[in-house]
Amino acid sequence: MSERIPLRPLASILSARNNGQNPDLIEKQNLKIRHSKMRDKARLQSEGRLLVLGMAFVSAFIVVGLRMFSVATTLPEEPRAAATGTPILAQRADIIDREGRILATNRITHSLYAQPHEMLDPLHSAKSLAKIFPELNEEKLIKDFTGTRKFLWVKKKIAPEQLQAVHDIGEPGLLFGPREERLYPNGRLASHILGGAKFGREGVLSAEIIGQSGIERAKDDYLRNPANGDKPLQLSIDLAVQSTLREVMHSGMRHLDAKGAAGVIMDVYSGEILAMSSLPDFDPNSRPKYFTGNNPSDNPRFNRAVQGVYELGSTFKIFTAAQAMELGLAQPETLIPATPPFRWGKHRIGEFEGHNYGPTLSLSDMIIKSSNVATAHIAKEIGVERHQDFMKRLGFFDATGVELSEAASARPLLPPHWSELSTLTISFGHGLSASPLHLTTAYASLLNGGHKVQPTLIKRADEEGMAQGERIIREEVSKAAREMLRQVVSSPSGTASFAEVSGYRVAGKTGTADKPRENGRGYYDDKTITTFASVFPADDPKYVVVVTLDEPKETTGERVRRTAGWTAVPVAGEVIRRTAPILGVRPEVASEFQSALRLTSN
Fold it and tell me: DSSP code of 502?
């Protein structure tokens, strides 16, 4: 701080008086000097303030200019509600068939939401939306739009033409949010395999897609992982084979007036499922949400091939014959007592429709003629413990383990106490209920040379497909079982002659079981579950085909026929006839035709 100069310093005043000068001149001079210093100081302060103010103006101009440049170079967007919380990842991996064809993918759609406080005409908007979306309640919309809410969903998913119609309303308080939705381009085809997806967490800018059922749910973690967005999940099914299986089964189901149907085609070595269908089915693009019936099997979402557990009748007899051969108890030509009835305590086991096949049958004829009595005799020789162990190794004690969310709970229904009587009845397919997929897997394990397979809906690498599982039976026993089943189709006395397909050596076994009543009290007299389990070609097995029909009726004859030979067998035969070429199985050329070709070529 500078020292203040006095206006009339005493020494200067005294000196001026002694010299005869006017002391007032000294005061004026000092006052002038003081004002000059004050003026210089004020000027410096003003210059500093002007510099700071100028810099502030320049900074403001630069900020405004940058903002105007940013706005000018950015595309215009509709205002959106602020999103809060963790960002929602909407990308979901595609699902493809074994040939790379799309089964499930994503497409961009829009949601519609409202910000009532931004609306110019809520009443008009509510009335207009009610016309565009008839399912919306106009009065509720008016109440919501004129209330205190600042945000509400109007529609979670809208079509492009609906978006345009809402846009034409011209209401700034109605906004659109982009999002992905799951698309199944093949509709009902493979619906029970794919299952379906739904929205999880939702925001105005995107929505999370999560699996709801089927493989979409079972493989949800893989499909939702952003790292797999460009790595589709490849299934084992062949879209062309799947389409053919469904078409044939649907036609057969209608022709036979059946309540439902299930079919499976499996590679006998790898366990890969090439096709699997359950009817009735549904469109996963508009998956039904509610079911009001009492019987779960009436629900179109119910997967009969996996969730449906049924007594599969005489298809089980080949297991009994194979185990007897494996244990050395019998050979194909071994004679077995067959005179009905077979007595066990107060219980009697007879033949279908009272047939009597004579005092004895060979093991082969037991399968060809489908004798309950002869099978029970063999089962008694096998014994309870060995029979239980064999059925367990074939997979009839556990869920199949196939990659479907519903499969874990689909376990076979076993007798509460496995007695000798249980062994006798289960040996010919009664007293144990299992799914068609269980049966398919067991036939593949039995007829592929005797190695257990694990069913799968995921395409396996070549080395995985050739890997052999636990040995169930010896290879020669597996071959003998195939030859027996071949005679069921080819022999005039066999029960599956309608499965004979020219060029393909089909082998298989029929099964007809009375349908149990819903209350658990006995069986219906006029309702059956019919099944045909088959393998082809019989001498070089490649695929197992199983077809099951619920309450079929063949009515072209004088009386209604409900057995598998008249219902499931012709359907399965048509499935094989039409799918074998697609699967690349070359037909055998008849020997006469081969001779003619040789003569012509010579």
Answer: T
Looking up residue 494, the CATH number of its domain turns out to be 3.40.710.10
Tell me the pLDDT tens digit for each residue of 230-245.
899 999 999 999 999 9
Amino acid at 35: H
Average pLDDT of the segment spanning 148-169: 88
Cα torsion angle, 197, 132, 159, 153, sign: negative
Give the integer Cα–Cα distance in Å for 232 and 485: 40
Query: How far is it, in rounded angstroms, from Cα 201 to Cα 471?
Result: 48
Q: How many domains does the chain have?
A: 3
Q: Which segments of 452-579 does DSSP mark as H helices, in order? A: 462-466, 475-490, 568-579
The lowest-confidence range among 54-58, 202-206, 360-364, 452-456 is 202-206
- HEC profile for 1-17? CCCCCCCCCHHHHHHHH
In the structure encoding, which two tokens stand for residue 492, read together? Answer: 């005039």
Residue 205 pLDDT greater than 90, yes or no = no
- Between 4 and 53, residue with greater pLDDT: 53
User: In the block, which residue shows the tokens 């298809």?
Assistant: 315
Helix (H, G, I), strand (E, B) or coil at 254: helix
Exposed e or buried b for every residue in 101-122, given b needs 16+ CB within 10 A?
eebbbbeebbbbbbbbeebeeb
Among 403, 410, 414, residue whose Cα is nearest residue 454: 403
Find out whether 511 and 432 touch, Cβ atoms under 8 Å: no
The domain that holds 153 is classified in CATH as 3.90.1310.10
How do 507-516 and 360-362 pair as beta strands?
unpaired
User: Whole-angstrom Cα distance, residue 231 to residue 12?
Assistant: 102
pTM for the full predicted model: 0.80
> Which residues is 198 bridged to in the sheet?
210
Within this chain, do residues 131 and 269 fall inside the same structural domain, yes or no?
no
Distance of CA 121 to the CA centre of its chain: 45
Query: Other C-beta atoms within 10 Å of 32: how many?
Result: 9
Task: Say if 49 falls within a structural domain.
Answer: yes
Q: Residue 101's domain spans which residues?
A: 95-234
| H-run or E-run covering 495 | none
- The separation between CA 182 and the C-alpha centre of its own chain, rounded to angstroms, equals 12
- Could you tell me which residue, 119 or 289, shows the higher pLDDT? 119
Answer yes or no: do 212 and 292 share one domain: no
Q: Contact at 8 Å (CB) between 563 and 545?
A: no
Q: Quickly list DSSP for 264-308.
A: EEEETTT-BEEEEEEES---GGG-------S-GGGSTT--TTTT-
